[in-house]
Design brief:
alpha/beta; Alkaline Phosphatase, subunit A; nine-stranded mixed sheet; three-stranded antiparallel sheet
């Protein structure tokens, strides 16, 4: 081609734009059809289509919620030795601790007879739909490492989050929504890494709606609208961008990375028209809003998050994280002293979570939606520093799951008689990650991504699928 002024301007106008986008495109996966968000085949038939993870930041105490230990009351006040690496790291000596009974009474609920404390009277009504995992244990004794491990399967390295792996493995059910959304995430204890893509293509990172510390009423996706242009002007701008993209696409046939980038831009455009309606809860009936505690002082904020989660799951979002957290150095459930503050948090989440479970079930969504509730670890059965709270306990704690192909009214695993260590049917966090992927139809050993000359996976070189909890 003869280089004249016209050809120079023509090639530069598109060429410089292409160079500016090159580094962005390199972060996108090469997928069939050029769209990395296109729905993908599972490794085997899936039991669940989507996940709603209800994250309790700070580590709620299992022995004060769902893991009833009568011996705590029987031996309350006694001095005993507990094998605890966290204490040894601080004191270098083996010390005795005062056994600390729960301030709350437990009773049995449902046909399954599951014990639940007074903290969760509403969730207690749904025990026959829940599967309790009482032998959980994890890596990391501090909030930062344990929270990262919960979300990414790693403490020391930057790794993709669970939601990013799910979106990478399955793509998106909806053409108008991202496959992974996190509601009001905390910026502490890993912050964006807890919903990040790490070395996976950037298109798989979580889309944050709001942030911790901001009212759920004001939760929105940043930069979703352009107040400087009206809808007609935005449409004209978008159509012009599509024409430029088409020129570039024709100039680089077979470049699936360019196709991926173009598709992600088009998704962002479609989101402008679909997301605001989904996040607008005013269309829900008063009855449904009441189920979630919306309009009540204690439950309004978290109730809005849980209802948004249902609406997002109904619209086809694969992985939704609902966060009960904040941006302080003392996460909400972290009661090293004044354990009774657990009650303040429980009253804020109990009714909304129960509402979510009931709403999903009545709409027929619970069958193929896996609901996962839990924190990064549990709490000790003894009083920290002989005070009025409990220390971190990664050695044994409880999570519960519902729907999505797991047994209902079932309890799996057990901690010791005081609730300190998982001793029977133990589930390491790697095992749970492997199991979660399996329920979605993904083999955790096959879901890999080659980065820097090595294949990586969510479970690293660990993880056993816990098939005993499958329905």
């Amino acid at each position: 081609m003869r280089l004249n002024r016209r050809n120079l301007l023509k090639s530069s106008a598109c060429g410089f734009g292409y160079l500016a986008a090159a580094s962005m495109m390199q972060r996108h996966a090469k997928a069939e059809g050029g769209n990395p968000l296109a729905a993908k085949s599972t490794h085997f038939p899936a039991r669940a289509k989507r996940v709603i993870f209800v994250f309790m930041q700070g580590g709620p105490s299992h022995v004060d919620t769902f893991d009833y230990k009568p011996l705590l009351e029987k031996h309350d006040g006694e001095e005993r030795t507990f094998d605890d690496a966290r204490v040894l790291a601080k004191t270098k000596t083996i010390t005795k601790h005062r056994v600390f009974k729960s301030p709350w009474k437990f009773k049995q609920y449902g046909e399954c007879g599951q014990y639940v404390s007074e903290l969760f009277p509403n969730i207690a009504q749904h025990v026959d739909d829940l599967c309790f995992l009482k032998g959980m244990h994890t890596d990391g004794v501090a909030h930062g490492p344990a929270t990262l491990f919960l979300h990414t399967g790693s403490i020391n390295f930057v790794r993709p989050s669970v939601g990013a792996w799910v979106q990478y493995g399955l793509g998106s059910e909806s053409e108008n929504l991202p496959g992974f959304v996190t509601l009001q995430p905390s910026m502490g204890n890993g912050g964006p890494r807890n919903f990040g893509n790490a070395f996976l293509p950037a298109v798989y990172q979580g889309t944050a709606v709001g942030r911790a510390g901001v009212s759920a009423k004001d939760a929105k996706i940043r930069n979703l609208s352009n107040p400087m242009l009206n809808s007609n002007e935005q449409m004209s701008q978008f159509e012009a961008l599509q024409k430029i993209n088409a020129i570039q696409k024709n100039s680089h046939p077979g470049d699936t990375e360019m196709d991926a980038m173009i598709n992600s831009y088009e998704l962002a455009w479609r989101m402008q028209h679909s997301v605001p309606d989904i996040l607008d809860l005013s269309s829900e009936s008063q009855h449904v809003q009441n189920m979630y505690g919306i309009g009540e002082k204690e439950t309004d904020d978290f109730g809005r998050q849980c209802l948004m989660a249902r609406r997002l799951s109904e619209a086809g979002v694969r992985y939704i994280q609902v966060n009960y957290g904040d941006n302080t150095n003392n996460p909400r459930w972290d009661q090293h002293s004044n354990l009774e503050k657990h009650a303040d948090h429980a009253v804020k989440v109990d009714k909304p979570i129960a509402g979510l479970l009931a709403d999903l079930k009545q709409r027929g969504l619970l069958e193929d939606t896996l609901v996962w509730w839990g924190g990064e670890f549990g709490r000790t059965p003894y009083a920290q520093a002989n005070g009025t709270g409990r220390d971190h306990n990664p050695y044994g704690f409880t999570s519960f799951v519902a729907g999505g192909g797991v047994k209902a009214g079932f309890s799996y695993g057990e901690t010791d008689e005081f609730g300190h260590h998982a001793i029977q049917d133990k589930i390491h966090m790697h095992d749970w990650h492997a199991t979660l992927l399996h329920l979605l139809g993904l083999d955790h050993e096959k879901l890999t991504f080659n980065y820097s000359g090595r294949d990586f996976r969510l479970t690293d070189v660990h993880g056993e699928v816990i098939k005993e909890i499958f329905a």
